[in-house]
Amino acid sequence: MGSSGDVNWKLEDHPKLPKGKTIGLIVLDGWGESEPDQYNCIHKAPTPAMDSLKNGRPDTWRLIKAHGTAVGLPSEDDMGNSEVGHNALGAGRIYAQGAKLVDLALESGKIYEDEGFKYISEAFEKGTVHLIGLLSDGGVHSRLDQVQLLLKGFAERGAKRIRVHILTDGRDVLDGSSVGFVETLESELAELRSKGVDAQVASGGGRMYVTMDRYENDWTVVKRGWDAQFGHVTFFWNGNRSGYFNEKLEKYVEIPSDSGISFNEQPKMKALEIAEKARDAILSGNFDQVRVNLPNGDMVGHTGDLDATVVACEAADVAVRMILDAIEKVGGIYVVTADHGNAEDMVKRDKAGKPALDKEGKLQILTSHTLKPVPIAIGGPGLSAGVRFRQDLDTPGLANVAATVMNLHGFVAPGDYEPSLIEVVDK
Known about the structure:
It comes from Brassica rapa subsp. trilocularis. By secondary structure, the protein is an alpha/beta fold. The protein has helices spanning 41-44, 48-54, 82-91, 98-108, 115-121, 144-156, 178-194, 207-210, 220-223, 232-236, 271-284, 296-301, 306-330, 401-408, and strands spanning 12-13, 23-28, 61-64, 129-135, 161-168, 198-206, 289-294, 333-338, 374-379, 387-389, 411-412, 422-424. β4, α6 and β5 form a beta-alpha-beta unit. The chain starts with 11 loop residues before the first strand and ends with a strand.
């Protein structure tokens, strides 16, 4: 393709689909598809808008993968998350993400060739290496085995004194599981000490109260904007790129979140305000596409409060209806999907799929994301006759959505994109 100046960014016109239809693209955060039971908060909530999409035309609603290799993670045991989910939605291709990139860097030793490592290694002989990070095997923000490999790699490359500052999880893994992770870490450090390396845990604390806060523990600036998951449909969607591509063609709207309270105390969050902004943008006629994230199912689901999560899902559904109504008024097209699962299964399961109990016989509430697929629905008065979901794609995922949306805008997606989910059949 040559230098960036030689790239032709013009997309080919779609041979059958017209341009000019406003598209409302809705991402429901933490909204997967699972068996209906009392721990499926989406099932328990009144969700007439989403139900109407699922029970409408069978060829305009389907499930797609939002975890594992479908979003660039190492294995099918890796749950999806908002970062990788929105990356895949925006990129239209599958790139190695997060844990996968770290695995590759550790396996190849490339991580030790980086300028950052070279800089700190200069202090190995007389100084102290400080490591701070999340201690869990959740795979969203960290993985315990990677920490173990990193400690071993530092020691093998000359580190004499290592101090670990741990952040316990309880969000991406079961509450109380940190004890086992700390024991594993202590065993690893003891082995290093037996080899002459002064390696110890220096400090620790919970992620919500130390650094990775989203609950207003004196981090009000950090949380602003997370309510609308503003960064998800801008920064992550744009490939971890900040700012506008073209300010003349884009407008970012941030809905400030409630401050000083946990999400389960106000489970409706700002869903109504988000929907109102989206509605107004659609009705204005100024935008070809209005993209929105509704965070309720995920942010409230992470609190483990089932009743509040039911309210959250209902609020998100009300917001969906408002946006769909606006699309109806302008003769547009809607695309409704999700970035990963959460609210659809809020209990840990045993190998038989039954709710798991802890040693005291108490139900183990699941606050993490899930491995469940997510829905995608298309429709609206602007959807051309004959458009339907294809049946010849084996395991489509979030990365297939970008080409789909390009088609609905009247363009053919680039050849290196994951295939579109739709086809046009002659009526």
